[in-house]
Design goal:
Blueprint: E1 4-6, E2 12-14, H1 15-18, H2 21-25, H3 28-47, H4 52-70, H5 72-79, H6 85-100, H7 103-118, H8 122-130, H9 133-141
Antiparallel strand pairs: 1-2
Helix pairs in contact: 3-4, 4-5, 6-7
């Protein structure tokens, strides 16, 4: 009964039906713009020696952008999972600290919370980025750089010259060679 009201026409409408469709279901275009603007404001605020006003605007746009992008129901379902409670708490405490006027500690907590909330999405993001035309070429070109060895095995043990035999059966291994001379005199 608290979520309904009686209008002059006598019909009852719920409060969720009174909200605009864009807020109830979310609009991805608007949400992505809000998230992008929030990220830009936050980055500019950080680059200007943690400007409190810009970081506050960035956090407000971020808070508005998440539900607009994925919808309010999914947002609540994702952020309020029991296994993500600590990460959500760090994120909310970081946003609160930025709003109160402690931007350095607030951003540190926000980054920690965001990494814990969305850390499992980074491998999926890398796969998606590797499939993009320009970015994928850049990421795949550095496949064997950095001193890492290739995972392809070398065909030294089973090549065509061995005819399917390993080097132990051919007698090429020195570990099993009898260097005592005449082995029959010991038996």
């Amino acid at each position: 009964p608290s979520s309904t009201y009686a209008s002059n026409s006598g019909s009852k409408k719920s409060l969720t039906n009174m909200m605009p469709e864009m807020i109830r279901t979310g609009n991805k275009k608007v949400g992505v713009m809000l998230l992008g603007s929030g990220g830009v404001f936050t980055m500019v605020g950080m680059s200007l020696f943690f400007n409190k006003s810009l970081m506050r605007i960035g956090n407000l746009l971020f808070i508005a952008g998440i539900p607009m992008t994925i919808g309010p129901g999914r947002t609540a379902g994702y952020f309020l999972q029991p296994k993500k409670a600590r990460a959500t708490g760090c994120l909310m405490l970081g946003i609160f600290l930025v709003m109160v006027g402690w931007p350095v500690f607030g951003i540190a907590l926000e980054i920690f919370g965001l990494l814990n909330l969305f850390g499992n999405l980074f491998p999926v993001l890398m796969v998606i980025l590797k499939q993009m035309p320009i970015v994928g070429n850049l990421l795949n070109s550095n496949k064997n750089s950095g001193g890492k060895k290739s995972r392809t095995p070398k065909n030294t043990q089973y090549d065509n010259n061995n005819q399917g035999q390993d080097h132990y059966s051919r007698g090429d291994d020195d570990r099993y060679h009898d260097d005592r001379g005449d082995a029959s005199r010991y038996y």
